[in-house]
Amino acid sequence: MSWHEVSVDTQTEAVEAISNILMEAGAEGIQIDDSADKATFEAHDSTVMVDWETMPHRISGAVVTGFFATTIDVEKIALDVQTRVNQLADYGLNALPGSVKTNIVKEEDWATEWQKYYHPVRVTRHLTVLPKWETIPASQPDEKYIILDPGMAFGTGTHPTTQLMLQALEIVVRGGERMLDIGTGSGVLSIGARQLGVHQILATDIDEVAVQSAQQNIDLNPSATGIKVIPSDLLTSVPVQRYDIIVANMLSEVLVLLIPDLKTYVTPNGYVLLSGIYFDKKEAIVSQLGSAGFEIMETLQMGDWFGLICQLTTTEE
Description:
CATH class of the largest domain: Alpha Beta
Keywords: Cytoplasm, Methyltransferase, Ribonucleoprotein, Ribosomal protein, S-adenosyl-L-methionine, Transferase
EC number: 2.1.1.-
Mean pLDDT: 85
Subcellular location: Cytoplasm
Main location: cytoplasm
Order of helices and strands: EHEHEHEHEEEHEHEHEEHEHEE
Family: Belongs to the methyltransferase superfamily. PrmA family.
């Protein structure tokens, strides 16, 4: 089977936004080649040593690629994507050069390329992301594995925003909690949370392909049995009940829309963990959280990306 590639040449700060644009355009998978990945990789312990002198890697900027079925009108998709990428400057994001290109790729070639670059990575003190084709190495004390198949999935667990969320989960999880994972993507946060001891998890994503991908990854992890995944536009299809932990790793523009409704879903002593926050959006998010009655308990940072651990300072009667 072949796929249409629609690739956008851009900057690190626009990667999340362009990934979202491609998914909304109907992409059945996303691939990110980001120059920031090298610095991110080197900042964390890894079960794999990489010789960057021989390993091909991007020196600057980033390329975000969406994979589309060959039955679609790829030229129309490319034009629509180009229009939306050009508009990112209105949101304060530097997406330059922002050029959009199309190509055809065979699925087997795509999968082979993935396996060249995707290796086990220790992303936090306790959690290691492990591609499904790798053998589980000898564990260090307390090491836990999140098994993922990148396939045509959304997210591999190695992006700074995902790592910040996994770090935040390590900080707040005590065991036995109920958690809501909004915009689950590949399911990596839900799987990681279960490994850390969260008891009941509801994961959501607006995209049905992402829901299916998350479920497939959950099925790869025996410890993740029972995690429920549903399609939902933010909280639209989520039954109103209280959760001890709510996680949301998404664009700041979407977080702003989500934050006012979160207090209805979090327990009085519960935590809201947010990421996907680029440095120039942080103050706006902090202000929005304050207006909604949340206090910032801890701020996490990796490069230009931020994660926030929050609690309610006021409760509804």
